[in-house]
């Protein structure tokens, strides 16, 4: 049912506006088609849809809804209405307003309205003055500017660096991996020749883990919030297509992310940020419980060679290293930095033919998908079930699909050859013939008990254990252990040939049901059976499970103060993003980086606004 509510003075939000799929111009069109105006007019009880002034409306969101409970698939819109703009339009709208007044209770619409502002506005150079000069001029290096190291150029590190540089800090961005151009070649060498660079791969390098990814920009932290909108608008400034601001399930795809990151880099360089690629953080310089700088080395060389190491001094260090930087967690432990284990999820990656998922989700509309070129988006799915706690004898757990990549491929996210883990990526058109998704169950920190000797890093060892088992099951050389879904349920080795997989480095029929402890396997089996009821046809011999999916989120949280983002145990250290346990996904990591950037700027007296 369509909802309409007063968002702020003079602004009304109309959500759940439904336009039947056969009437809508399709997924790539973001504008006011007549059917959409008709839907708006119907809610407002406005008699002539074509006369609705488009200028007064902004499309905030457009999603495709093909749920079976609906009579018909539809595009669903959220639209903001600026009443003031309606007023300033032609006289015809006056009647319209006056008929809305009793219906909506608009009383204050004549008064001045405040435009919605996002955090991005704070980045507006006119609003932020450093010593009265324009901070965006990279050549103007001010005396005594606070020096900040941002370690890691994933979404959290990039956004922290952006905010800090904009407000006038002297920022050095330290990244162990390569810029996207070279990183692309390293990933090519991995996929084609099986050569894994431990420092430049699917996890490490410019843009972080999200670069060779599906580039989904969905987030659970409130997609219409100012901070999420600010991140999305910033991405648009750097070249993302504007429809990500509106799309209900925005995604970019690797081909869009790579040029975007190049633009991001050039902007930071113009701001005067010193970007050091190939440079690995090995240690922190600590004096009197205060960070004074970092010890770095050339990441092309083996870690730990003191002759390569260089000490760089900073006033603050932002740690944005992601959750695959296990060497950094160990280093933090050596410094007694407070870290606490946290729950996360492990499981397998399932892959189906995309056509099957399109058919399950869309029925007769499936033919309109046309490998991403059609009007209808390539079908995805999201399933969540609670399993156990009943006669099944399984412990109560949540089991869910995660990081689903329609039209994508399964990729290797290991950072060393003895540990094997996988994830999914896609290109913007999502045109591949496969649909993959993680299927994971939650594991709580008390399940890592056998790794207790590793202290707060018990969860990391738990992950490592199953990554090692997966590498052994696959037989080495990055071959992934795989099993057809019916065989996983029946606990038998797949003896007939496996269905084709999008994973390029090879799959081997394996007993995946023996990989995890029995309680995790049982939960996965039970959940798959429940998912099949929601998505009939999900269990099929054409569905292939790949092992393992372990790095769903960080298994540890680095404790920090809520308002300043400073580590609770070491002054001057700012742990952020997914690796620190404060984000899960591209957008939430970027928001955390932005938030921390402002928090630190405030402490460095560079920025005085409210957060
Ligand atoms: P990261 O992106 O992990 O960045 C950390 C950076 O720090 C890396 O560049 C690394 O090289 C660098 N670094 C690490 N250690 C050091 C060191 N010692 N010295 C210097 N630099 C260091 N999320 C989504 O929202 N949507 C998706 O579609 C999606 N798909 C994904 C697909 C894949 C294949 C993967 C691996 C992840 C995907 N994710 C996705 C998750 C998403 O990428 C992460 O949540 C996000 O990148 C986390 O951002 P971050 O800045 O916290 O850390």
From TrEMBL:
Residues 147-184 form the FAD-binding domain. Residues 343-552 form the FAD-dependent protein C-terminal domain. The keyword Oxidoreductase applies. Pfam families: FAD-depend_C, FAD_binding_2, FAD_binding_3. Keywords: Flavoprotein, Oxidoreductase. Residues 261-342 form the FAD-dependent oxidoreductase 2 FAD-binding domain. One of its GO terms (molecular function) is oxidoreductase activity. The keyword Repeat does not apply. This is FAD binding domain-containing protein.
């Amino acid at each position: 049912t369509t909802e309409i509510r007063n968002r702020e003075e003079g602004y009304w939000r109309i959500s759940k506006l439904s336009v039947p799929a056969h009437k809508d111009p399709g997924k790539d069109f973001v504008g006011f088609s007549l059917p959409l105006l008709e839907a708006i007019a119907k809610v407002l009880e406005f008699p002539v849809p074509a006369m609705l002034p488009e200028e007064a409306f902004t499309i905030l969101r457009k999603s495709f809804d093909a749920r079976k409970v609906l009579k018909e698939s539809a595009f669903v819109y959220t639209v903001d209405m600026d009443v003031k703009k309606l007023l300033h339009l032609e006289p015809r709208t006056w009647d319209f307003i006056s008929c809305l007044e009793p219906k909506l209770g608009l009383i204050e619409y004549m008064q001045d309205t405040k435009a919605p502002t996002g955090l991005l506005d704070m980045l507006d150079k006119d609003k932020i003055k450093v010593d009265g000069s324009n901070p965006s001029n990279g050549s103007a290096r001010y005396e005594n500017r606070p020096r900040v190291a941002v370690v890691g150029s994933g979404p959290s590190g990039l956004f922290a660096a952006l905010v800090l540089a904009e407000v006038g800090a002297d920022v050095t961005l330290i990244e162990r991996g390569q810029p996207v151009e070279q990183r692309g070649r390293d990933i090519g060498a991995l996929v084609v020749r099986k050569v894994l660079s431990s420092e430049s791969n699917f996890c490490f390098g410019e843009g972080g883990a999200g670069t060779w990814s599906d580039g989904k920009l969905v987030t659970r932290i409130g997609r219409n919030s100012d901070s999420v909108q600010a991140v999305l608008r910033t991405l648009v400034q750097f070249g993302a297509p504007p429809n990500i601001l509106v799309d209900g399930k925005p995604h970019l795809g690797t081909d869009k992310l790579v040029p975007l990151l190049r633009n991001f880099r050039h902007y930071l360089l113009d701001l005067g940020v010193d970007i050091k690629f190939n440079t690995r953080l090995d240690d922190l310089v600590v004096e009197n419980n205060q960070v004074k700088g970092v010890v770095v080395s050339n990441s092309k060389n083996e870690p730990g060679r003191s002759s390569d190491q260089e000490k760089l001094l900073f006033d603050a260090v932002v740690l944005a290293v992601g959750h695959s930087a296990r060497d950094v967690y160990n280093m933090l432990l050596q410094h007694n930095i407070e870290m606490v284990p946290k729950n996360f999820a492990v499981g397998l990656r399932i892959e189906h033919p995309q056509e099957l998922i399109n058919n399950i989700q869309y029925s007769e509309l499936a033919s309109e998908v046309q490998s991403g070129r059609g009007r209808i988006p390539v079908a995805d799915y999201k399933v969540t079930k609670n399993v156990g706690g009943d006669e099944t004898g399984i412990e109560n757990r949540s089991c869910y699909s995660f990081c689903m990549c329609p039209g994508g491929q399964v990729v290797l996210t290991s950072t060393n050859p003895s540990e094997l883990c996988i994830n999914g990526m896609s290109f913007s058109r999502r045109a591949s013939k496969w649909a993959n998704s993680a299927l994971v169950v939650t594991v709580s920190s008390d399940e890592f008990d056998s790794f207790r000797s590793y202290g707060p890093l018990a969860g990391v060892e738990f992950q490592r254990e199953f990554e090692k088992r997966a590498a052994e099951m696959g037989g080495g050389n990055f071959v992934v252990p795989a099993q057809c879904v019916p065989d996983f349920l029946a606990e038998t080795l797949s003896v007939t040939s496996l269905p084709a997989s999008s994973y390029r480095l090879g799959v081997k029929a394996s007993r995946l049901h023996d990989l995890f402890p029995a309680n995790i396997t049982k939960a996965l089996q039970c959940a798959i059976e429940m998912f099949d009821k929601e998505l009939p046809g999900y269990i099929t011999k054409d569905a292939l499970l790949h092992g393992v999916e372990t790095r769903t989120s960080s298994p540890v949280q680095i404790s920090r103060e809520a308002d300043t983002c400073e580590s609770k145990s070491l002054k001057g250290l700012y742990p952020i993003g997914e690796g620190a346990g404060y984000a899960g996904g591209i957008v939430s990591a970027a928001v955390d980086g932005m938030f921390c950037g402002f928090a630190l700027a405030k402490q460095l007296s560079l920025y005085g606004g409210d957060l």
